[in-house]
Design a protein that fits this description.
disordered N terminus; Dihydrodipicolinate Reductase, domain 2; alpha/beta; six-stranded parallel beta sheet; TAT_signal; Gfo/Idh/MocA family oxidoreductase; nucleotide binding; Gfo/Idh/MocA_oxidrdct_glycsds; Rossmann fold; 12 helices; ten-stranded mixed beta sheet; NAD(P)-bd_dom_sf
Length: 433
């Protein structure tokens, strides 16, 4: 891989006047890989999806999960010990991701932190010369998503988005059917996220638990008092850290909607919803219906989040439906599709087959070829952006006009202000890459 000298100027420029930018990762170029070189991976965030990352990379030939990193030392020690026992070898343990980036022996990082850390962690990794596998959504807002795309390009990094359905053989085949006109002119995509989401109550503030670096956990977000309602999962339902279910599970489906329709960002967004079941402290809506209109292409995306008890749509709770003038296609989960053709809904081509998204990333890293990626950073940004646009329309309570080329709302200062956030030093997303 090409070694690119990098200064810390971009970090310093974005810091508030008089504020020292401390502890940023040293710029270390990744190894140049041969076909048989061992790839050393660090997994950052190991309490949830990170465990799947650990398992996924560990089963690949000549790949070593060398370092585990988590801001919660209790989680870190317990999970690392279990992993060592299973693998019959030691791993390095770090609580601060910046120390991982300073490690010359780490070639790639796999990021499974809460959403508000995804983009900055990935940008820092790119600047440190590491290739990146980053969980969905790749960004917490549009601004930092665009900066991640720029960082991957500038530092020539391989950046894979954790939407594993893109590596499914069946889903790839389904997309080709859409391109080939199997269901005719495809004019609408529907995404559904019907998940069992319970009452989380309101636990209020409490002392920070032993072993948790609360400042580092909050990272780019503004400082809050600790609450058990945030750690370790329910942060998804608070705007400072998560993006609701459309930005959680829903990124798989927003990504597939755009991929199947062959569209980018929309021109008009409408969202409605709210909290109808629980009197708990969630900030994000339990029910959300969003519509994304593409008038120039004559296409539309519908997206719906529902909790608790609900019907399925052609057997789908989490998935996608594509509508054409000759039939429709149902995609259930990450690896199954069926088609129904004509007015009589005659069964057409169908398949259930998965793939290995981690291996796809490793193959691209070894080949030093971004074109091999099934979930490249550009699609990561757009899939997340679609969810964020729907959330902004919901929070403002009105239909929004959007310019896909400028990536800004049209004549709406209030909406445009929500394309980014106020960052907290030293966890600053650089304005200039």
């Amino acid at each position: 891989m090409k070694n690119i000298p990098v200064s810390r100027r971009t970090f310093i420029q974005t810091a508030a006047a008089g504020t020292a930018v401390l502890g940023l990762p040293t710029i270390i170029p990744a190894h140049a890989f041969g076909a048989n070189d061992r790839l050393r991976v660090a997994v950052i965030g190991i309490n949830g999806r990170g465990k799947d990352h650990m398992a996924g990379f560990s089963k690949l030939d000549n790949v070593e999960v060398a370092t585990l990193c988590d801001v919660d030392d209790v989680v870190l020690q317990k999970t690392a010990s279990e992993f060592e026992a299973k693998q019959n070898r030691k791993v390095k343990r770090e609580q601060d991701l910046r120390k991982v980036y300073d490690d010359k022996d780490i070639d790639a990082v796999s990021i499974a932190t809460p959403n508000h850390w995804h983009a900055l962690a990935a940008i820092w990794a790119c600047q440190a010369g590491k290739d990146v596998y980053v969980e969905k959504p790749a960004c917490h807002n549009l601004f930092e998503g665009r900066k991640l795309v720029e960082a991957a390009a500038k530092y020539n990094r391989i950046v894979q988005h954790g939407v594993q359905l893109r590596s499914s053989v069946a889903i790839q085949e389904a997309i080709q059917h859409l391109r080939d006109g199997l269901i005719g002119k495809v004019y609408m995509a529907r995404g559904t996220v019907y998940k069992w989401r319970a009452d989380i109550g309101n636990l209020g503030n409490s002392p920070v638990p032993q072993g948790l670096n609360w400042d580092l956990w909050q990272g780019p977000a503004q400082a809050r008092e600790f609450s058990k309602n945030y750690v370790h999962y329910n942060w998804h339902w608070f705007w400072d850290y998560g993006n609701g279910d459309i930005g959680n599970q829903g990124i798989h489906e927003t990504d597939l909607c755009m991929w199947g329709l062959d569209v980018g960002l929309p021109e008009k967004i409408t969202s409605a919803g709210g909290k109808f079941l629980w009197n708990d402290c969630k900030e994000t809506p339990e029910v959300l219906t969003s519509t994304y209109h593409y008038p120039k292409q004559g296409k539309i995306i519908e997206f719906e989040v529902r909790p608790w008890m609900t019907n399925k749509e052609d057997g789908v709770e989490v998935g996608n439906i594509f509508y054409g003038d000759k039939g429709y296609m149902v995609i259930n989960g990450y690896s199954d599709y069926k088609t129904y053709l004509g007015r009589n809904r005659e069964p057409g081509p169908a398949r259930n087959a998965g793939g290995d998204h981690y291996k796809n990333f490793v193959d691209a890293v070894r080949a030093k070829d971004k074109k091999l990626l099934n979930g490249p950073v550009e699609t990561a940004y757009k899939a997340a952006a679609l969810a964020h646009l729907g959330n902004i329309a919901y929070r403002l309570g009105r239909t929004l006009d959007f310019d896909p080329q400028k990536e800004m709302f049209v004549g709406d200062k209030e909406a445009n202000a929500m394309l980014t956030r106020k960052y907290r030093a030293p966890y600053l997303v650089p304005t200039t890459i």
